[in-house]
């Protein structure tokens, strides 16, 4: 019995030969990475309390060897990285925030490992900054010494916080900053111990002064608003008076005007042609047609209230377009305008010419 053929996977086209593609869109890859970061962060957090099973114990031990005491913030950093990646399309997320996360971890590991008496044993026991902190601290101490390493680490730590929170030094350590508010009680205690009012009292004084200034500005604003409203009402009244004056000037008084229409205009009537006139017009139409090479045989005529219709039958082979093109010539010959040529008359094999009756 023949064995079924196995599907071959070709890396060149990133698909199986039978057409099943494995290339994922960037959005799907991004979603998988975010979920993975959150999952690893969650397992790392549970492993700190020993409730993640055997795998959690290995993860906890491994994180301790690598990051030392900083393993407690490692899950939070992973989740924060996933959060930034999820919101990277928004305006407040920038690429340097990831750099801030990396610098924060490295500088913190160095600081945690600087004050240990036996750094090698501490790294083996998962204390301090772990093996990463041991390596970085030894390299930095050999270059710039202990105090230089401490100063540089604290500076890098501050820079990382600035990058992560996308703020400035004033925004961090100022009175309204993140760390400034946290240190405000210490400033107040220090001021009391040294006999001064302290930063807290100064801020209270500034706050009271600001409130008094706002109340004064509010009262001045009310007075100015009342004055402005009175001015606006006066201007509105003036505009209304001007508009009324314009309307009075533009209004036209109605007057009864009597128009006399001459009645003799209604007595004019359009006369009907006599028999002699009809014969003359028929001869003119026939002669005009023959002058243009169109022999015709005159037919009946019909006298109406305003026009008289003359009919004729053209010779065989004459195009009607030649006849309709002679309307101006016929009007000139008859001394009548306008005339209308009806070619042919509906229901008849005749051509009709409507000539206005003389007044």
From TrEMBL:
Residues 52-171 form the DNA translocase FtsK 4TM region domain. This is FtsK alpha domain-containing protein. It comes from Candidatus Falkowbacteria bacterium CG10_big_fil_rev_8_21_14_0_10_37_6. Residues 273-357 form the FtsK alpha domain. InterPro entries: FtsK/SpoIIIE/SftA, FtsK_4TM, FtsK_alpha. It is a multi-pass membrane protein. The keyword Cell membrane applies. It is found in: Cell membrane. Residues 212-226 have a biased composition (Acidic residues). The chain crosses the membrane at residues 32-55, 61-84, 96-116, 144-165.
């Amino acid at each position: 019995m023949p064995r079924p053929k196995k599907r071959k996977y070709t890396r060149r086209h990133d698909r199986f030969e039978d057409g099943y593609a494995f290339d994922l869109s960037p959005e799907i890859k991004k979603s998988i990475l975010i979920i993975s970061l959150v999952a690893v962060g969650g397992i790392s957090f549970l492993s700190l309390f020993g409730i993640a099973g055997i795998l959690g114990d290995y993860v906890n031990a491994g994180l301790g060897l690598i990051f030392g005491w900083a393993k407690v913030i490692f899950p939070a950093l992973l989740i924060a990285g996933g959060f930034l990646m999820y919101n990277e399309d928004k305006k407040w997320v920038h690429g340097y925030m990831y750099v801030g996360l990396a610098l924060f971890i490295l500088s913190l590991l160095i600081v945690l490992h600087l004050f240990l008496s036996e750094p090698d044993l501490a790294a083996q026991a998962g204390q301090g900054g772990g093996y990463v902190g041991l390596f970085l601290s030894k390299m930095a101490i050999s270059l710039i010494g202990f105090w230089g390493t401490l100063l540089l680490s604290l500076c890098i730590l501050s820079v990382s916080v600035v990058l992560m929170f996308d703020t400035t030094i004033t925004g961090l350590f100022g009175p309204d900053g993140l760390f400034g508010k946290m240190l405000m009680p210490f400033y107040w205690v220090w001021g009391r111990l040294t006999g001064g009012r302290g930063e807290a009292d100064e801020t209270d004084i500034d706050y009271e002064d600001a409130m008094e200034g706002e109340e004064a500005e509010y009262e001045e604003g009310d007075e100015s608003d009342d004055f402005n409203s009175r001015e606006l009402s006066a201007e509105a009244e003036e505009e209304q008076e001007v508009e009324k004056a314009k309307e009075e000037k533009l209004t036209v008084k109605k007057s009864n005007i009597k128009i006399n229409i001459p009645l003799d205009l209604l007595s004019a009537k359009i006369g009907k042609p006599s028999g002699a006139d009809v014969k003359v017009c028929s001869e003119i139409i026939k002669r005009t047609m023959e002058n243009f090479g169109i022999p015709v045989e005159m037919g009946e005529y019909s006298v109406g209230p305003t026009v008289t219709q003359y009919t004729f039958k053209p010779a065989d082979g004459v195009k009607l377009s030649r006849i309709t093109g002679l309307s101006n010539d016929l009007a000139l010959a008859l001394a009548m305008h306008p005339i209308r040529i009806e070619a042919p008359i509906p229901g008849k094999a005749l051509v009709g010419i409507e000539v206005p009756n003389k007044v």
